Amino acid sequence: MRPSAVRLLNILVPVKRTVDYAVKIRVNPDQKGVDLNVKHSMNPFDEIAVEEAVRLRERLKDEVKSIKVVTIGPTKAAETLRTALAIGADSAIHIEVPESAPAPEPLGVAKALRAVIEREKEGVDLVIMGKQAIDDDAGQTGQMLAGLMDWAQATFASKLVVDPKKKEAEVTREIDGGLQELKCRLPLVVTTDLRLNEPRYASLPNIMKAKKKPIEKLTPAELGVDLKPILETIKVTEPPKRVGGGKVENVDQLIAKLKEAGITPVKS
């Protein structure tokens, strides 16, 4: 009796185009959001996810069949996909939305990713994505996708070891009390933390090769999903400016200052 063939891994990596982490954020004039007419780049946690997918292929060699990246965004978001392709992904999907469209919420993104996974003929075994995007800091999409797919999930990963033969993954994740080790069955959704790896810089030859790699364009309608937000932003304001502190000579002066500020010291 012949042993069953080992299924090669198909990896999906969602990425997001966000305001570059080094840009100083400013509220736009209508106070409904922030000024987006600034430099954008790939969400840093998603860069880590792409890097980890490429490293998995380097470690597992022929056991990884494909690495596909997907994004939701306007025409300019194709630049983010090209960056991921230059790092080492094989192909990409661009779910294109108008420039003026509001940013989709985590549940809408998760539903779109579910639709992408369900239409992949060869299936998806592993989704690696950033634990959060630095623009909304929601940190919900990975968990929602795992729930919609009824897949295992391992969030805030700082180490990932995959065994395609056993269809298992061992994940070390960051928690408040330290580290937690999980063993998960594939298919699996993993969200990446900062300590998982340090993304590489794309070399010039790989940047040139990325221009020839395929990007499939889709619309939300073709996927059967509605990305219209269900939440309304009433107002966005900048945090109050910090006021400089002062020095006191002794405890009595400290207590006096606290009382002036309306804070009553508690006796031990």
TrEMBL record:
Cofactor names: AMP; FAD
Residues annotated as domain Electron transfer flavoprotein alpha/beta-subunit N-terminal: 32-227
Recorded superkingdom: Eukaryota
Subunit structure: Heterodimer of an alpha and a beta subunit.
Cofactor annotation comment: Binds 1 AMP per subunit. Binds 1 FAD per dimer.
Gene Ontology molecular function terms on file: electron transfer activity
Record's keyword terms, sorted: Electron transport, Mitochondrion, Transport
Pfam families: ETF
Family statement: Belongs to the ETF beta-subunit/FixA family.
GO cellular component: mitochondrial matrix
Protein task: The electron transfer flavoprotein serves as a specific electron acceptor for several dehydrogenases, including five acyl-CoA dehydrogenases, glutaryl-CoA and sarcosine dehydrogenase. It transfers the electrons to the main mitochondrial respiratory chain via ETF-ubiquinone oxidoreductase (ETF dehydrogenase).
Name the record gives this protein: Probable electron transfer flavoprotein subunit beta
InterPro entries attached to this UniProt entry: ET-Flavoprotein_bsu_CS, ETF_a/b_N, ETF_b, ETF_beta_N, Rossmann-like_a/b/a_fold
Entry keyword annotation includes Iron: no
Organism: Pycnoporus cinnabarinus (Cinnabar-red polypore)
Subcellular location as annotated: Mitochondrion matrix
Single biological process term from Gene Ontology: amino acid catabolic process
Lineage per the UniProt record: Eukaryota, Fungi, Dikarya, Basidiomycota, Agaricomycotina
